[in-house]
Amino acid sequence: MVSFSIWQLLLLSASVAQAAEITSDTYFYGQSPPVYPSPPITGTPSWAAAFEKAVALVSQMTLEEKANITVGYSPLTGCSGETGTVPRLNWTGLCISDAGNGLRSTDFVNGWPSGIHVGASWDRNMAYQRALHMGGEFKTKGVHVALGPVVGPLGRVAQGGRNWEGFSNDPYLCGALASETVQGIQDAGVIATTKHYIGYEQETNRNPSGGVEAYSANIDDKTLHELYLWPFANAVHSGSGAIMCSYNRVNNSYSCQNSKLLNGILKTELGFEGFVVSDWGAQHTGYDSAAAGLDVAMPSSSYWGLDGNNLTEAVKNGSLPESRVTDMATRLVASWYQMGQDVDFPARGVGMPSKFYTPHPPVYARDPSSKQFLIEGALEGHVLVKNVNNALPLNNPKLISVYGYDAPSPPEMNVGGPNDFIGGTWVYGYESTLDYIVFISDTSPPQIAANGTIISGGGSGANAPAYISAPFDAIKEQAYQDDTSLFWDFLNVDPTVDTSTDACLVFINAFATEGDDRTGLHDDYSDALILNVASKCNNTIVTIHNAGIRLVDQWIEHPNITAVVFAHLPGQDSGRALVQLLYGQQSFSGKLPYTVAKNESAYTNGGEPSLPEGEYTLFPQSNFTEGVYIDYKYFDQKNITPRYEFGFGLTYTTFSYSNLSINKLETVSTAPTAPPSPIIPGGVASLWDVIAQVTAVVTNTGNVTCAEVAQLYVNIPGGPVKQLRGFSKVGIPVGEPVTVEFDLMRRDLSTWDVASQQWLLQGGGYEIWVGSSSRDLPLKGTLII
Ligand SMILES: *[C@@H]1O[C@H](CO)[C@@H](O)[C@H](O)[C@H]1NC(C)=O
Ligand SMILES: *[C@@H]1O[C@H](CO)[C@@H](O)[C@H](O)[C@H]1NC(C)=O
Ligand SMILES: *[C@@H]1O[C@H](CO)[C@@H](O)[C@H](O)[C@H]1NC(C)=O
Ligand SMILES: *[C@@H]1O[C@H](CO)[C@@H](O)[C@H](O)[C@H]1NC(C)=O
Ligand SMILES: *[C@@H]1O[C@H](CO)[C@@H](O)[C@H](O)[C@H]1NC(C)=O
Ligand SMILES: *[C@@H]1O[C@H](CO)[C@@H](O)[C@H](O)[C@H]1NC(C)=O
Ligand SMILES: *[C@@H]1O[C@H](CO)[C@@H](O)[C@H](O)[C@H]1NC(C)=O
Ligand SMILES: *[C@@H]1O[C@H](CO)[C@@H](O)[C@H](O)[C@H]1NC(C)=O
Ligand SMILES: *[C@@H]1O[C@H](CO)[C@@H](O)[C@H](O)[C@H]1NC(C)=O
Ligand SMILES: *[C@@H]1O[C@H](CO)[C@@H](O)[C@H](O)[C@H]1NC(C)=O
Ligand SMILES: *[C@@H]1O[C@H](CO)[C@@H](O)[C@H](O)[C@H]1NC(C)=O
Ligand SMILES: *[C@@H]1O[C@H](CO)[C@@H](O)[C@H](O)[C@H]1NC(C)=O
């Protein structure tokens, strides 16, 4: 079915040769099959107009010009990357910039809530509005391509350094919010880059270093489809113009040259019409990577040649068909047309000099309409997990005591806002891992950022905020209005407590950054601080700014700890949002987008990344043998009781659930094999058909209007005990029951059949549950397929 050509054989022998330096070729556990040739963009109906225009433009380009636009050039602006241009045709190329939580490295932009915060909001509309307004900032600065959203890492490794950049370790929740984010960014006229494709679940050994190869994520076909690929399918279905391939290997073949992943799964099975861009430096071969499906190499390419000359030569000497280079260029240009960037797009990187302190005309990217979504986004991602003795909301306190390194603005922060690369060190302004964070623990990397509050994690996904509202800033403002007295101590691990205090607010964090995995899921310093305060204060309220899962079992049952908030990474309106929640001006409405265990051992591999071991010391292998059983699916499978289950979160009211109704749509075929259906972006079209609908009634049984996240879980016969397959966040007034609706698509109820290479419905009874978390599911029924 697929004919081998000389370049495929070279590709195979190249990887074997590389391996032979390490050990024999029987060494490999995972193998990735060759899939060639690379499928060209088809001009599917949703891309037809852009495709036609792209064909018309690219047909005027010479081979040299086509090759030239597939490689990055050292940016003349603050863009993270710039493609080559075609001066002869006045085609000015694309600016590509970090990242998914806001535009980095420049001024006059906002620091948005991070991915994990959006995940905790469980709010599709909020995800869309955040992306739309954030995307608008990229466009105003002449950035064509935003390097986000993140759906990989998904969160297999609890200690993963970049889990916070993504939404959730549940593929359905992650996929739904990725879909909204892609639509929002692209509705603003900017190409979204869904990343990192795929199996990039740890920072440890993500790149070759010191003679040790990048690790290989060995993932079986069923797990890949049902877990890691799932949110990418959502993103492609929503029209994501770009996909970034990741640093790691998958089945021992680098993601950016893995033909099975790029040619096979992404461009054939998912019908992806946009372009694949390498992560910065993730390319490891020349024309082989082009043949395998990589379209654009960033930030430059020694492999394809600094102006693409090696690609040109490879075409001329018969190693690579010119049609592949044409397709690479066409995919890039089609994405540009698809977002309307040929009309009135600002100049590349306008107002973004590569050094922000060099003179430049100001370009104000902060739209006043963003304000509402910055604060609402910040509000919605806070999750209240404990609240006893009416600790919250605070009610006209006379004295509040504030503790912990995470309460104030970073005190020694000399740089805020824009960020830059100075003296060989990244200075990300406020959010750096390096400039203001002095580490308390001896472990490297540290678990906490000990010199001030965090509003995002570190690395390329970090924020460039316009300002920071730290918790203590907002508390002071509220104290002024309420005539409350304050006591504070941010330095001592065993601070004093005024016995007259109404409440003790303790602020800690759990930091994470690109480039390193975390070294634990709780730290002794912060735990000691909390316990010391609680021993002296019977109304101790803990807030954790957590860039990932943070365990609480060292102190959660302490009787003096009356309230606990997972505050995640709220962006620049952090403190302002928190105070509105603590004082009951707004209700908490977030839910955990992950499971909080009682102990590290409850997670796959104890929550730790895979390390090089034994005979694999030089070629680390990460075997994803747990399959789809991560997070709550794993806890269900192993019968482990979590501390706080996936989907859990308190509000200032209570809800009751009733009137479950499950309806199969008789107008849509539920034959196990879907009727013949075209491939659209996202896969077989019929997978996206709604085949059943579920409704339930939610009643507010308390005293205040609050939003509830109603959740639907399904047992697909033969699969995990339950899987999230629907959620709906709605404001529910007291005394007015609200009907929530869930649409179930064919894909939601199907499993991947490895033998026939398709999604199949399982005939029989599907148990369906609806409720307020993955373990509080009062409504139960059966759907017969
Ligand atoms: C991964 O699988 C290979 C092949 O089965 C095995 O030799 C290796 O020990 C496994 N690695 C881990 C960490 O389990
Ligand atoms: C990886 O290897 C597994 C096991 O052989 C196979 O099921 C899967 O399809 C392979 N995937 C890729 C992308 O090579
Ligand atoms: C390739 O792109 C570079 C950078 O934009 C440009 O300077 C050069 O002229 C382009 N080469 C051709 C052949 O168009
Ligand atoms: C490029 O721009 C110049 C100056 O605006 C114009 O004279 C020329 O016709 C344009 N060339 C093409 C191919 O559009
Ligand atoms: C690729 O091009 C660069 C110059 O851009 C050259 O130094 C290098 O040797 C070329 N590599 C191959 C494999 O031709
Ligand atoms: C063709 O050109 C490429 C790129 O320079 C080079 O790597 C390859 O060895 C050449 N192949 C032949 C058969 O000359
Ligand atoms: C940062 O925090 C640590 C730990 O509390 C402290 O020792 C150090 O003095 C602080 N650094 C600055 C610059 O404030
Ligand atoms: C709780 O706080 C009170 C002070 O309000 C203190 O006397 C008591 O010992 C604390 N309880 C515990 C278990 O530490
Ligand atoms: C907490 O301690 C204060 C005195 O410090 C006391 O008035 C109050 O009743 C105590 N609250 C609880 C819930 O024990
Ligand atoms: C998990 O268990 C280990 C071993 O008993 C213990 O050292 C560790 O502190 C526990 N973790 C938490 C968060 O309690
Ligand atoms: C829920 O069901 C009950 C009993 O069937 C019915 O009386 C009630 O009207 C329903 N409530 C809503 C909001 O549909
Ligand atoms: C609602 O308010 C009433 C009267 O203030 C109070 O008795 C009741 O406990 C409250 N209910 C809830 C669920 O908070």
From TrEMBL:
GO terms for cellular component: extracellular region. Its EC number is 3.2.1.21. Keywords: Carbohydrate metabolism, Cellulose degradation, Glycoprotein, Glycosidase, Hydrolase, Polysaccharide degradation, Secreted, Signal. It is found in: Secreted. GO terms for molecular function: beta-glucosidase activity. GO terms for biological process: cellulose catabolic process. Belongs to the glycosyl hydrolase 3 family. This is beta-glucosidase. It comes from Hyaloscypha variabilis (strain UAMH 11265 / GT02V1 / F). The lineage of its organism: Eukaryota, Fungi, Dikarya, Ascomycota, Pezizomycotina.
